[in-house]
Specification:
This protein has about 80 residues and is mainly β. The chain has no helices and 6 strands.
């Protein structure tokens, strides 16, 4: 699946990934391939990403929104 993490200033990350853990306002949740379509609000926290080479990446965000559709994840972060 393809992930983009975008802030008002720049694009923080764009690549194909195996999994993503996001800080939802009602609790953290994970996303894997073929996840159901979803739009969710995010709170301040860490976005944990595991790429296709099993490398882990962490991004601090101050909230935002995520859209998941057709194995494409777009995080609009503050």
């Amino acid at each position: 699946m393809h992930l983009e993490i975008i802030t008002p200033d720049k694009k923080l990350f764009e690549d194909d990934v195996k999994s993503v853990i996001l800080p939802g306002i009602d609790g953290s949740f994970g996303v894997l391939d073929n996840h159901a379509p979803l739009i969710a609000a995010l709170k301040k926290g860490i976005v944990n990403v595991t790429d296709n080479l099993a490398a882990r990446h962490n991004f601090n965000i101050n909230g935002g929104v995520v859209e998941i559709l057709n194995n494409r994840i777009i995080v609009l972060a503050e």
